[in-house]
Amino acid sequence: MKIGKLWKKGSRILAIFKHRFSSEELIQIFVTCSFPIHVWAIPNMFRDVPSWLLHLTRSELVGAVSYTLTFMLVESIFVFACILLLGLLIPKRWIGPSIVPFCFVLLIELSLLAIAIQYLTLKYVLYRRLLVVAAILLAIVVAFAVSRIQKLNNIFVAIIKRLTVLTFLYIFVDIVALVVVFTRIL
Amino acid sequence: MKPTINRRGFLKLASLIPFTSPILSASNPEFEEQRTNADTPNVIIIVFDAFSAHDASLYGFNRETTPNLLRFAEHATVFHRHYSAGNFTTPGTSSLLTGTYPWTHRAINHYGTLLDAYNDRNVFSEFGGGDYTRIGFTHNFFASLILDHLKANLDEFILPNEVALIDYNLADNIFPWDYSIASQSETFYFKKPDRLSDSLFLFPILWSIREKINNLLIDRLEGNFPKGIPGDHDVLYPLEDTIDWIMEQLRRWSQPFLAYLHMMPPHDPYRPRKDFIDLYLDGWQPPSKPDHFFGDFPNRQHILDGHRIFYDQFIAYVDAEFGRLHDYLQETGVFDNSIVILTSDHGEMFERKIWQHTTPTLFQPIIRVPLLISTPGQTSRQDVRTTTCSVDVLPTLLHLTKRQIPSWVEGTVLPPYTPQNQPPDRSIFAVEAKSNPKIGPLRKATVAMIKGEFKLIYYRGYQGYDDVYELYNLEQDPDELENLYSTQSSIALALKNELLAKIEEKDAPFIQSDSD
User: Fold this and answer.
1) How far apart are CA B31 and CA B29, in angstroms?
2) Could you tell me if residue B226 is inside a domain?
3) What is the DSSP string of B185-242?
4) Labelling B430: which of A117, B224, B265, B370 has CA 20 to 30 A away?
């Protein structure tokens, strides 16, 4: 009963976005959000696994990996929600049909910015601000380019379509991990 | 009418006296309390993390860092050659709690925990049986992983968020039932200190929010902590709050209790209160020591000297707060019915191009830690100069509370509390093996053996430094400046043989499991 109500509420919320995005676009945006998060986090996680192997049992190791994958899923949903919110706030005519390629480029760019922040500027506030300003300027330029150059637009859409299968594999593993986490804490 | 009693009547009444005694005593609550206190004193173990005995004026350091420890020492036993069995929190804390060496309990890795067998072989399990309320509290994340594994034997397991000004950890709040694994994954995902985080977007966002909140909190505390509020990456806790909290809990905990209270200061980052930050700008320089092959600090010694000033200021702050607690314990009479222990899990180092304690080395500043024990009603100071180790604390507590010492304990009862003195040639050990698998023989490790005046350090399995030994005479050369390994070959050989035999003995169960 409760699940049914939640589903209805969720559908209502999604309906708000459906005026702005098609179902296919929603999936593609989620793929766009999820892909860089996983591509960054999974190799990083595997870098930690040897140190975990030193002291964790097999079941503890499965638990540790499951939590990490669950955090990836949560982060993907968080970024997806932020992008959707941004999509609602920006007038539709500004971006038009180029929303998916725009998101893709924006997220790749944000990813590079986040990596740069991690590498270089955690402790130097001045440089971090400069980077953020530079990223915003670049985002405006890229948004303009993507919305005006159809060929560029098509290239990005083609890339996202190819990434969909791989990303859904990630999501499937994340959901399995979420089940493992629930099993551990319940 | 004059009461009369004949001889037979007198004897009948006298024979009833043994039966009436318990009834009388049970009906007198004051007596009951006194009896209980005498048999079962409270036990308070206070651990200040990363507190090197080398920077405590109590032990002869030339900066006046610990005047309040000196006050405590006036009615306590002071151990001058006390060593932690490990050089960072995980092994150091585990040895203190289990009375066994790291090569036995195997909490040797970063984020490591004890072998399952020690979940029921530790200070809390030994004080089980219903008469003691057992409390475990720590600020330290690594120590909280150890306590989490022992929580079945704890009546209260208090996570850092209980006393923190702010706690950024998710696991404390969302996954307390699966704290150990959840918190490790969380740490790796969101906030690896000084390393790339797994989280691409949330990490920079959360980090920025955290910086803003921290700055607000510093402002709120009216500039009392200009270098930042004491804490680590995830939890902030002015020591004042923790000491106040302890005082409050001491009134609440039902007696008798065993309380393990592990506080993070003076561990890095060194953030003393503002009234301590002008101390020790005295230009003093420690004796010059040669660089060590594991030294990786990029700057010159004077930078390390600067860090040491901050560390000493932080110790002075810790000492002042301990002084407050000391006064409270004295005023409320807690010292009269409690065993109070003050010690540390490991030390800290500022020499040989080594900073702090995350190093494969086992030099004196890293493993020599304070130990002070005050027994109920003790009124005078006693000094013990025998070599002792953190593994000795558990058997000593069991001895003082008239409990049986189990056979798996590797330490012995400390010298002043047992009628027979320890053998003068007793060897004690410190083990560093954070890169070695938990289950497996020691293939990459550093082991120090201290026996009499000599200390042998053995480096095994490090690339370029396999089977390397250092030998020091601590009596003649307390700063460990002259490696005697090649010049005192007969002593070196005897110590080496003993150490290797001990390692072989301790490795045996793991070689068996390795081959299985």
Assistant:
1) 5
2) yes
3) HHHHHH--TTS--S-SSHHHHHHHHHHHHHHHHHHHTTTS-TT--SB-SSEE--HHHH
4) B265
Nearest-angstrom CA–CA distance, B157 and B134: 9
The reply to whether B301 falls in a domain is: yes
Cβ contact B357:B88 at 8 Å: yes
List the structure tokens of A149.
Answer: 């150059």
Residue B25 belongs to some domain of the structure = no
- Residue ranges of domains in chain A: 22-185
Query: Could you give the CA distance from residue B364 to residue B345 in angstroms, rounded to a whole number?
Result: 14
* Sign of the torsion angle spanned by Cα atoms B138, B141, B142, B144: positive
Interface pTM, i.e. ipTM? 0.81
> Looking at beta carbons, which residues of chain B come within 8 Å of A114?
200-201, 203-204
* CA A153 – CA A147 distance, rounded (Å): 7
Number of domains making up chain B: 1
Domain that includes residue B323, residue range = 40-515
Chain B CB contacts of A185 under 8 Å are 175, 177-178, 182
Helices (H), A117-149: 125-148
pLDDT tens for A116-175 read 777 765 555 556 667 777 777 877 777 777 777 888 778 888 888 888 888 889 999 999
The single-letter code of the amino acid at B361 is T
Q: Can you give the pTM of this predicted structure? A: 0.86
Q: Is residue B3 part of a domain?
A: no
Q: Specify the CATH number for the domain of residue B369.
A: 3.40.720.10
CA distance A119 to B400: 54
CA dihedral B463, B467, B468, B472 (to 10 degrees): 150
**Residue B437 is nearest to which of A36, A40, A54, comparing CB atoms?**
A54
